[in-house]
């Protein structure tokens, strides 16, 4: 028994650390969820991220100096770390930077944490390698060891593309393996991590007058902070269905978590104001009958008959998913967490999208996208404008 107690005592710190790491993983999900329900202009959302960041940093030792060559005019070494270099929403905004990067004046190193590579992963890897970049598969490698790899590669700027979403590498970022660290694309808020210096955005997604707080310094690109590369499997744009149907169909293919009670209230107002109109909503959870029934019941309570609503589950083939946009005439964005990939897909397939401006980044991504493609007239400032 004494031997067992000695063993437990020796490993107590490791066990405690494992508990802390598990707690941090739970907190990832909590922080992400807060974006769906909180407008975020007050301090609560910022404080939650900042507090997480302070605690998370204590789990890792930080590098405080770097031996990167101090040589003028040498190529900068820029690293990109993400688990989403596969057919994932983020990948549609990563392809253009990887393809059109300046590989002459920069050395690009990709740290891929992809769990299961697909054809898109292989295409990305092939592009990077053919242009002279480096591709490192890091799935399953401890985040501290990944930080060591980054150090050995002498990365000058490390860009993480995930934030508080699945399989992120914020543990690597917490080690400060690069002298400059950046977050971009994958998360609509501050990471809360003091180890990250900058967050890339634009002046429409994050107004210079915003009250939203970040631990990172915001770098606003002169145009949009996103560059969408459509799926080559999208297929042709179809005529608006109202021509053959004789009625207007509104729709949304956004994550169900983004369709808040307030969003459903506003959508019901729209449908009730447009005679004979219909609503089509597609998302993964609609494969579950109880969720479908709850969704329809909520709309019925808001005055919208369930017979006017079509619910579609996940569509696995990308071509079929993109062609499903032909079922709608007008795409309805969500709030306070707006769509990103869905908005771009909708526009690419010829379906206009209506969005509503807000006070924080998550709310304003649609504002940025629509304005930059000349559709600023589809941006509402209030719920009443959105409905009308």
Automatic annotation (TrEMBL):
InterPro entries linked to this entry: Glycosyltr_41/O-GlcNAc_trsf (IPR051939), OGT/SEC/SPY_C (IPR029489), TPR-like_helical_dom_sf (IPR011990)
Gene Ontology terms for molecular function: glycosyltransferase activity
Pathway: Protein modification; protein glycosylation
Coiled coil: none
O-GlcNAc transferase C-terminal domain span: 67-226, 246-387
Keywords from the UniProt entry: Glycosyltransferase, Repeat, TPR repeat, Transferase
Name of the protein in its database record: O-GlcNAc transferase C-terminal domain-containing protein
Protein's organism: Aegilops tauschii subsp. strangulata (Goatgrass)
């Amino acid at each position: 028994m004494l031997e067992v107690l000695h063993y437990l005592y020796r490993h107590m710190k490791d066990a405690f650390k494992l508990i802390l790491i598990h707690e941090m993983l739970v907190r990832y999900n909590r922080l992400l969820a807060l974006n769906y329900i909180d407008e975020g202009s007050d301090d609560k959302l910022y404080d939650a991220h900042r507090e997480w960041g302070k605690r998370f940093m204590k789990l890792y030792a930080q590098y405080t100096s770097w031996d990167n060559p101090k040589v003028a005019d040498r190529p900068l070494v820029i690293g990109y770390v993400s688990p989403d270099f596969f057919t994932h929403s983020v990948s549609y905004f990563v392809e253009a930077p990887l393809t059109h990067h300046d590989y002459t004046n920069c050395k690009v190193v990709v740290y891929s944490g992809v769990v299961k590579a697909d054809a898109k992963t292989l295409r990305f890897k092939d592009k990077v390698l053919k242009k002279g970049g480096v591709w490192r598969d890091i799935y399953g490698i401890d985040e501290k060891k990944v930080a060591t790899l980054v150090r050995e590669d002498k990365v000058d700027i490390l860009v993480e593309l995930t934030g508080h979403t699945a399989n992120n590498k914020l543990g690597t970022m917490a080690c400060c393996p690069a002298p400059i660290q950046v977050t971009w694309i994958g998360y609509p808020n501050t990471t809360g991590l003091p180890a990250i210096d900058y967050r890339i955005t634009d002046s429409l997604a994050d107004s210079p007058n915003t009250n939203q707080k970040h631990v990172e310094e915001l770098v606003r690109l002169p145009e949009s902070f996103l560059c969408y590369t459509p799926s080559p499997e999208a297929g042709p744009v179809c005529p608006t269905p109202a021509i053959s149907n004789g009625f207007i169909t509104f729709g949304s293919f956004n994550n169900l978590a983004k369709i808040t009670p307030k969003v459903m209230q506003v959508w019901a107002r729209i449908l009730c104001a447009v005679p004979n109109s219909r609503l089509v909503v597609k998302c993964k959870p609609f494969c579950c009958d109880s969720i479908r029934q709850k969704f329809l019941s909520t709309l019925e309570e808001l005055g919208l008959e369930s017979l006017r609503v079509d619910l579609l589950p996940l569509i696995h083939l990308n071509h079929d998913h993109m062609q499903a946009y032909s079922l709608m005439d007008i795409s309805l964005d969500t709030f306070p967490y707006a769509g990103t990939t869905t908005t771009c897909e909708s526009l690419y397939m010829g379906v206009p999208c209506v969005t509503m401006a807000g006070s924080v980044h998550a709310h304003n991504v649609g504002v940025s996208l629509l304005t930059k493609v000349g559709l600023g007239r589809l941006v509402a400032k209030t719920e009443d404008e959105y409905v009308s």
